[in-house]
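Show me a record, fold above all:
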Amino acid sequence: MKKNLLFVIPSLNSGGGEKSLVNLLSQIDFDQYEVDLFLLNHEGLFMELLPKQVRVLPLPVAFQIFGKSLAESVQQFLSRGNLMLALNRIMFSVKNRSNKQTSIGEQNSWKYLASSLLPLSQTYDAAIGFLEKTSIYFCVEKVHAGKKIGWIHTDYDKLGMNPDFDIHYFKQLDHIVTVSEECSNILKRRFPMQAPKVNVIHNIVSPSVIKSMADKEHQDVYGRKEDEAVILSVGRLNHEKGFEMAIAACKILVDRGYNIQWNIIGEGKERETLLSLIAELGLEKHFKLLGLKSNPYTYIKQSDIYVQTSKFEGKSIAIDEAKILNKPIVITRFNTAKDQINDGIDGLIVDMDAEAIASGIEKLLTDQSLSLTMVEQLSRQKLGTEEEIMKLYQLLA
Protein backbone atom coordinates (compact mmCIF):
# COMPACT_ATOMS: atom_id res chain seq x y z
CA MET A 1 0.00 0.00 0.00
CA LYS A 2 1.25 3.47 -0.87
CA LYS A 3 2.28 5.83 1.92
CA ASN A 4 0.54 9.20 2.07
CA LEU A 5 2.88 12.20 2.28
CA LEU A 6 2.07 15.84 2.85
CA PHE A 7 4.52 18.63 1.98
CA VAL A 8 3.90 22.15 3.27
CA ILE A 9 5.51 25.34 1.94
CA PRO A 10 4.14 28.91 1.74
CA SER A 11 4.40 29.19 -2.05
CA LEU A 12 6.26 28.02 -5.13
CA ASN A 13 7.50 31.46 -6.03
CA SER A 14 11.18 32.04 -6.72
CA GLY A 15 13.63 30.85 -4.10
CA GLY A 16 16.09 28.10 -3.30
CA GLY A 17 13.79 26.24 -0.93
CA GLU A 18 10.95 26.34 -3.41
CA LYS A 19 13.15 25.09 -6.25
CA SER A 20 14.56 22.41 -3.97
CA LEU A 21 11.04 21.11 -3.28
CA VAL A 22 10.14 20.97 -6.97
CA ASN A 23 13.38 19.08 -7.67
CA LEU A 24 12.68 16.65 -4.83
CA LEU A 25 9.11 16.02 -5.97
CA SER A 26 10.37 15.30 -9.49
CA GLN A 27 12.40 12.42 -8.03
CA ILE A 28 9.70 10.91 -5.76
CA ASP A 29 8.68 7.33 -6.52
CA PHE A 30 4.96 7.81 -7.08
CA ASP A 31 4.46 4.05 -7.23
CA GLN A 32 5.33 4.04 -3.51
CA TYR A 33 3.96 7.40 -2.34
CA GLU A 34 0.82 9.48 -2.71
CA VAL A 35 1.81 13.13 -2.38
CA ASP A 36 -0.29 16.09 -1.30
CA LEU A 37 1.00 19.67 -1.22
CA PHE A 38 -0.36 22.44 0.99
CA LEU A 39 0.46 25.98 -0.18
CA LEU A 40 -0.57 29.28 1.38
CA ASN A 41 -0.36 30.87 -2.07
CA HIS A 42 -1.28 29.00 -5.24
CA GLU A 43 0.63 31.33 -7.55
CA GLY A 44 4.33 31.09 -8.25
CA LEU A 45 7.07 30.64 -10.78
CA PHE A 46 7.48 26.91 -10.14
CA MET A 47 3.80 25.86 -10.06
CA GLU A 48 4.01 24.72 -13.69
CA LEU A 49 6.97 22.48 -12.83
CA LEU A 50 5.08 20.36 -10.29
CA PRO A 51 4.76 16.69 -11.29
CA LYS A 52 1.19 15.95 -12.35
CA GLN A 53 0.89 13.26 -9.64
CA VAL A 54 1.11 15.87 -6.87
CA ARG A 55 -2.29 16.95 -5.51
CA VAL A 56 -2.41 20.60 -4.44
CA LEU A 57 -4.87 20.98 -1.56
CA PRO A 58 -7.51 23.73 -1.73
CA LEU A 59 -7.21 26.77 0.51
CA PRO A 60 -9.80 27.19 3.30
CA VAL A 61 -12.27 30.02 2.68
CA ALA A 62 -11.37 31.70 6.00
CA PHE A 63 -7.72 31.78 5.03
CA GLN A 64 -8.52 33.22 1.61
CA ILE A 65 -10.37 36.07 3.34
CA PHE A 66 -7.50 36.45 5.83
CA GLY A 67 -5.13 36.95 2.88
CA LYS A 68 -6.98 39.98 1.53
CA SER A 69 -6.06 43.57 2.45
CA LEU A 70 -6.59 44.46 6.11
CA ALA A 71 -9.69 46.58 5.49
CA GLU A 72 -11.32 44.11 3.09
CA SER A 73 -10.49 41.12 5.27
CA VAL A 74 -11.89 42.70 8.46
CA GLN A 75 -15.01 43.87 6.65
CA GLN A 76 -15.73 40.39 5.25
CA PHE A 77 -15.17 38.66 8.59
CA LEU A 78 -17.49 41.12 10.35
CA SER A 79 -20.16 40.65 7.69
CA ARG A 80 -19.98 36.92 8.37
CA GLY A 81 -20.18 37.44 12.12
CA ASN A 82 -16.58 36.25 12.66
CA LEU A 83 -15.52 38.85 15.24
CA MET A 84 -12.59 36.78 16.51
CA LEU A 85 -11.13 36.30 13.02
CA ALA A 86 -11.52 40.03 12.38
CA LEU A 87 -9.59 40.80 15.58
CA ASN A 88 -6.93 38.21 14.71
CA ARG A 89 -6.52 39.77 11.26
CA ILE A 90 -5.89 43.15 12.89
CA MET A 91 -3.41 41.65 15.37
CA PHE A 92 -1.65 39.82 12.52
CA SER A 93 -0.95 43.16 10.82
CA VAL A 94 0.06 44.82 14.08
CA LYS A 95 2.58 42.08 14.95
CA ASN A 96 4.13 42.07 11.49
CA ARG A 97 4.46 45.86 11.40
CA SER A 98 5.79 46.20 14.94
CA ASN A 99 8.69 43.79 14.44
CA LYS A 100 11.63 45.13 12.47
CA GLN A 101 12.88 41.55 12.08
CA THR A 102 10.75 39.81 9.44
CA SER A 103 11.38 36.39 10.98
CA ILE A 104 10.35 37.49 14.48
CA GLY A 105 7.24 39.04 12.96
CA GLU A 106 6.36 35.76 11.27
CA GLN A 107 6.80 33.88 14.54
CA ASN A 108 4.81 36.33 16.64
CA SER A 109 1.98 36.60 14.13
CA TRP A 110 1.64 32.85 13.54
CA LYS A 111 -1.06 32.29 16.18
CA TYR A 112 -3.27 34.92 14.52
CA LEU A 113 -2.75 33.46 11.05
CA ALA A 114 -3.32 29.96 12.45
CA SER A 115 -6.83 30.93 13.57
CA SER A 116 -7.89 30.98 9.90
CA LEU A 117 -6.56 27.50 9.24
CA LEU A 118 -8.47 24.43 10.44
CA PRO A 119 -6.60 21.14 10.94
CA LEU A 120 -6.53 19.03 7.78
CA SER A 121 -9.09 16.24 7.74
CA GLN A 122 -6.79 13.56 6.30
CA THR A 123 -4.25 11.62 8.36
CA TYR A 124 -0.85 11.19 6.70
CA ASP A 125 1.96 8.72 7.14
CA ALA A 126 4.33 11.69 7.17
CA ALA A 127 4.03 15.47 7.03
CA ILE A 128 6.98 17.57 5.94
CA GLY A 129 7.23 21.29 6.67
CA PHE A 130 9.63 22.09 3.85
CA LEU A 131 10.65 25.57 4.95
CA GLU A 132 11.53 27.08 8.31
CA LYS A 133 8.89 28.96 10.34
CA THR A 134 5.26 28.81 9.12
CA SER A 135 5.59 25.53 7.20
CA ILE A 136 6.85 23.76 10.32
CA TYR A 137 4.33 25.43 12.63
CA PHE A 138 1.51 24.33 10.33
CA CYS A 139 2.75 20.74 10.26
CA VAL A 140 2.94 20.56 14.03
CA GLU A 141 -0.42 22.19 14.81
CA LYS A 142 -2.66 21.51 11.83
CA VAL A 143 -1.76 18.03 10.57
CA HIS A 144 -2.36 14.52 11.86
CA ALA A 145 0.61 12.39 10.77
CA GLY A 146 2.56 9.36 11.91
CA LYS A 147 5.82 11.27 11.43
CA LYS A 148 6.55 14.97 11.26
CA ILE A 149 9.65 16.42 9.62
CA GLY A 150 10.85 20.03 9.57
CA TRP A 151 13.25 21.33 6.91
CA ILE A 152 15.71 24.20 7.56
CA HIS A 153 17.28 25.54 4.35
CA THR A 154 19.79 28.01 5.70
CA ASP A 155 22.09 29.02 8.56
CA TYR A 156 19.62 29.14 11.46
CA ASP A 157 21.66 31.67 13.43
CA LYS A 158 21.46 34.17 10.56
CA LEU A 159 17.66 34.04 10.26
CA GLY A 160 17.06 36.47 13.13
CA MET A 161 14.56 34.14 14.78
CA ASN A 162 13.66 33.52 18.40
CA PRO A 163 14.95 30.01 19.26
CA ASP A 164 12.75 29.88 22.38
CA PHE A 165 9.73 30.08 20.09
CA ASP A 166 10.98 27.37 17.73
CA ILE A 167 12.03 24.87 20.38
CA HIS A 168 8.37 24.26 21.24
CA TYR A 169 7.82 23.08 17.67
CA PHE A 170 11.13 21.28 17.20
CA LYS A 171 10.37 19.09 20.23
CA GLN A 172 7.27 17.82 18.40
CA LEU A 173 9.15 16.87 15.22
CA ASP A 174 10.46 13.38 14.61
CA HIS A 175 13.24 14.62 12.35
CA ILE A 176 14.85 17.96 11.51
CA VAL A 177 16.44 18.10 8.06
CA THR A 178 18.93 20.66 6.84
CA VAL A 179 20.93 21.06 3.65
CA SER A 180 24.61 21.09 4.60
CA GLU A 181 27.01 19.85 7.26
CA GLU A 182 27.67 23.39 8.50
CA CYS A 183 23.93 24.11 8.81
CA SER A 184 23.62 20.84 10.73
CA ASN A 185 26.40 21.85 13.13
CA ILE A 186 24.73 25.22 13.72
CA LEU A 187 21.39 23.59 14.56
CA LYS A 188 23.01 21.10 16.92
CA ARG A 189 24.83 23.88 18.77
CA ARG A 190 21.71 26.01 18.99
CA PHE A 191 19.38 23.13 19.99
CA PRO A 192 21.62 20.53 21.68
CA MET A 193 18.72 18.48 23.05
CA GLN A 194 17.35 18.11 19.50
CA ALA A 195 20.72 17.15 17.96
CA PRO A 196 19.85 13.43 17.53
CA LYS A 197 16.97 14.46 15.26
CA VAL A 198 19.12 16.49 12.86
CA ASN A 199 19.82 15.00 9.43
CA VAL A 200 21.54 16.35 6.33
CA ILE A 201 19.84 15.91 2.96
CA HIS A 202 21.53 17.94 0.25
CA ASN A 203 19.41 19.84 -2.25
CA ILE A 204 18.53 17.63 -5.19
CA VAL A 205 19.88 18.78 -8.54
CA SER A 206 19.79 16.83 -11.78
CA PRO A 207 22.57 17.57 -14.32
CA SER A 208 20.65 15.96 -17.18
CA VAL A 209 17.59 18.16 -16.58
CA ILE A 210 19.65 21.33 -16.09
CA LYS A 211 21.76 20.77 -19.21
CA SER A 212 18.69 19.94 -21.28
CA MET A 213 16.93 23.13 -20.20
CA ALA A 214 20.09 25.20 -20.72
CA ASP A 215 20.15 24.12 -24.37
CA LYS A 216 16.55 25.12 -25.12
CA GLU A 217 17.46 28.69 -26.10
CA HIS A 218 20.26 29.16 -28.64
CA GLN A 219 20.08 32.90 -29.35
CA ASP A 220 22.06 35.37 -27.24
CA VAL A 221 19.75 36.11 -24.29
CA TYR A 222 21.93 39.01 -23.12
CA GLY A 223 22.34 40.94 -26.36
CA ARG A 224 25.98 41.42 -25.45
CA LYS A 225 28.21 43.87 -27.23
CA GLU A 226 31.58 42.94 -28.71
CA ASP A 227 34.19 41.98 -26.11
CA GLU A 228 31.66 42.41 -23.28
CA ALA A 229 32.02 40.00 -20.36
CA VAL A 230 28.72 38.81 -18.85
CA ILE A 231 28.43 38.21 -15.12
CA LEU A 232 25.35 36.58 -13.61
CA SER A 233 23.94 36.28 -10.10
CA VAL A 234 20.72 34.50 -9.09
CA GLY A 235 18.73 35.11 -5.93
CA ARG A 236 15.94 36.97 -4.19
CA LEU A 237 16.39 40.72 -4.11
CA ASN A 238 16.65 40.64 -0.34
CA HIS A 239 19.21 41.88 2.19
CA GLU A 240 20.84 38.48 2.75
CA LYS A 241 21.91 38.18 -0.90
CA GLY A 242 24.21 41.21 -0.62
CA PHE A 243 23.42 42.63 -4.04
CA GLU A 244 24.35 46.13 -2.90
CA MET A 245 27.92 44.75 -2.71
CA ALA A 246 27.52 43.39 -6.25
CA ILE A 247 26.53 46.82 -7.54
CA ALA A 248 29.48 48.45 -5.75
CA ALA A 249 31.83 45.78 -7.14
CA CYS A 250 30.47 46.43 -10.64
CA LYS A 251 31.26 50.13 -10.23
CA ILE A 252 34.85 49.29 -9.23
CA LEU A 253 35.30 47.06 -12.29
CA VAL A 254 33.82 49.64 -14.67
CA ASP A 255 36.08 52.32 -13.19
CA ARG A 256 39.04 50.00 -13.80
CA GLY A 257 38.11 49.91 -17.47
CA TYR A 258 36.42 46.52 -17.76
CA ASN A 259 33.62 46.15 -20.30
CA ILE A 260 31.09 44.14 -18.30
CA GLN A 261 27.39 43.46 -18.09
CA TRP A 262 26.23 42.18 -14.68
CA ASN A 263 22.74 40.64 -14.52
CA ILE A 264 20.62 39.42 -11.62
CA ILE A 265 17.80 36.91 -12.00
CA GLY A 266 15.38 37.24 -9.12
CA GLU A 267 12.74 39.41 -7.53
CA GLY A 268 12.19 40.82 -4.07
CA LYS A 269 11.46 43.69 -1.75
CA GLU A 270 14.78 45.47 -2.37
CA ARG A 271 14.23 46.03 -6.10
CA GLU A 272 13.60 49.78 -5.82
CA THR A 273 16.50 50.28 -3.41
CA LEU A 274 18.85 48.44 -5.77
CA LEU A 275 17.58 50.35 -8.82
CA SER A 276 18.23 53.61 -6.99
CA LEU A 277 21.79 52.52 -6.19
CA ILE A 278 22.38 51.48 -9.81
CA ALA A 279 21.21 54.92 -10.99
CA GLU A 280 23.21 56.73 -8.30
CA LEU A 281 26.41 55.02 -9.52
CA GLY A 282 25.57 55.51 -13.20
CA LEU A 283 25.54 51.78 -13.94
CA GLU A 284 22.30 51.51 -15.94
CA LYS A 285 24.20 50.14 -18.96
CA HIS A 286 26.24 47.70 -16.89
CA PHE A 287 24.00 46.32 -14.12
CA LYS A 288 20.55 44.92 -14.87
CA LEU A 289 17.77 43.37 -12.79
CA LEU A 290 16.17 40.81 -15.09
CA GLY A 291 13.35 39.73 -12.78
CA LEU A 292 12.18 36.12 -12.55
CA LYS A 293 12.97 33.54 -15.22
CA SER A 294 11.26 30.15 -15.29
CA ASN A 295 14.31 28.78 -17.11
CA PRO A 296 17.44 30.48 -15.72
CA TYR A 297 19.73 27.78 -17.07
CA THR A 298 20.19 29.34 -20.51
CA TYR A 299 21.25 32.55 -18.76
CA ILE A 300 23.74 30.66 -16.61
CA LYS A 301 25.13 28.79 -19.63
CA GLN A 302 25.58 31.97 -21.69
CA SER A 303 27.26 33.92 -18.87
CA ASP A 304 31.04 34.11 -18.51
CA ILE A 305 31.26 34.21 -14.71
CA TYR A 306 28.77 33.31 -11.97
CA VAL A 307 28.93 35.40 -8.77
CA GLN A 308 27.16 34.87 -5.43
CA THR A 309 27.48 37.82 -3.03
CA SER A 310 25.42 36.31 -0.19
CA LYS A 311 25.86 37.30 3.45
CA PHE A 312 24.66 33.85 4.48
CA GLU A 313 23.41 30.69 2.78
CA GLY A 314 22.35 27.20 3.71
CA LYS A 315 23.39 25.53 0.51
CA SER A 316 22.84 27.52 -2.65
CA ILE A 317 21.13 25.60 -5.44
CA ALA A 318 22.16 28.33 -7.89
CA ILE A 319 25.84 27.71 -7.15
CA ASP A 320 25.34 23.98 -7.74
CA GLU A 321 23.60 24.76 -11.03
CA ALA A 322 26.43 27.04 -12.13
CA LYS A 323 28.90 24.27 -11.28
CA ILE A 324 26.93 21.76 -13.36
CA LEU A 325 27.08 24.19 -16.30
CA ASN A 326 30.86 24.56 -15.74
CA LYS A 327 30.97 28.27 -15.03
CA PRO A 328 33.91 30.01 -13.32
CA ILE A 329 32.49 31.06 -9.94
CA VAL A 330 33.16 33.75 -7.34
CA ILE A 331 31.37 33.57 -3.99
CA THR A 332 31.65 35.49 -0.73
CA ARG A 333 32.96 33.90 2.45
CA PHE A 334 29.61 33.08 4.05
CA ASN A 335 29.51 30.34 6.70
CA THR A 336 28.76 27.45 4.34
CA ALA A 337 30.91 28.63 1.40
CA LYS A 338 33.46 25.83 1.85
CA ASP A 339 30.64 23.27 1.62
CA GLN A 340 30.23 24.27 -2.03
CA ILE A 341 33.52 25.61 -3.39
CA ASN A 342 37.12 24.45 -3.07
CA ASP A 343 38.80 27.85 -3.09
CA GLY A 344 41.16 28.28 -6.03
CA ILE A 345 40.26 24.88 -7.48
CA ASP A 346 36.67 24.98 -8.74
CA GLY A 347 35.92 28.60 -7.81
CA LEU A 348 37.06 31.55 -5.75
CA ILE A 349 35.94 32.43 -2.21
CA VAL A 350 36.47 36.11 -1.44
CA ASP A 351 35.93 38.40 1.52
CA MET A 352 32.47 39.88 1.99
CA ASP A 353 33.07 43.36 0.59
CA ALA A 354 32.86 45.06 -2.81
CA GLU A 355 36.61 45.46 -3.26
CA ALA A 356 37.29 41.75 -2.67
CA ILE A 357 34.42 40.71 -4.94
CA ALA A 358 35.68 42.98 -7.72
CA SER A 359 39.24 41.67 -7.34
CA GLY A 360 38.03 38.05 -7.53
CA ILE A 361 36.14 38.75 -10.73
CA GLU A 362 39.11 40.68 -12.13
CA LYS A 363 41.30 37.66 -11.45
CA LEU A 364 39.05 35.47 -13.61
CA LEU A 365 38.76 38.13 -16.33
CA THR A 366 42.53 38.51 -16.64
CA ASP A 367 43.79 34.98 -15.94
CA GLN A 368 42.33 32.83 -18.68
CA SER A 369 44.32 29.77 -17.61
CA LEU A 370 42.80 29.94 -14.11
CA SER A 371 39.27 30.09 -15.55
CA LEU A 372 39.97 27.17 -17.87
CA THR A 373 41.43 25.13 -15.01
CA MET A 374 38.27 25.69 -12.94
CA VAL A 375 36.05 24.72 -15.86
CA GLU A 376 38.12 21.57 -16.33
CA GLN A 377 37.82 20.70 -12.63
CA LEU A 378 34.05 21.15 -12.70
CA SER A 379 33.67 19.06 -15.84
CA ARG A 380 35.28 16.11 -14.00
CA GLN A 381 33.16 16.35 -10.86
CA LYS A 382 30.11 14.22 -10.12
CA LEU A 383 27.62 16.98 -9.38
CA GLY A 384 24.24 15.24 -9.51
CA THR A 385 22.52 14.63 -6.17
CA GLU A 386 19.46 12.63 -7.27
CA GLU A 387 20.40 9.85 -4.84
CA GLU A 388 19.73 12.18 -1.89
CA ILE A 389 16.08 11.13 -2.18
CA MET A 390 17.11 7.80 -0.60
CA LYS A 391 17.93 9.62 2.65
CA LEU A 392 14.37 10.91 2.78
CA TYR A 393 13.00 7.43 2.15
CA GLN A 394 15.02 6.20 5.15
CA LEU A 395 13.42 8.82 7.38
CA LEU A 396 9.98 7.85 6.11
CA ALA A 397 10.48 4.11 6.70
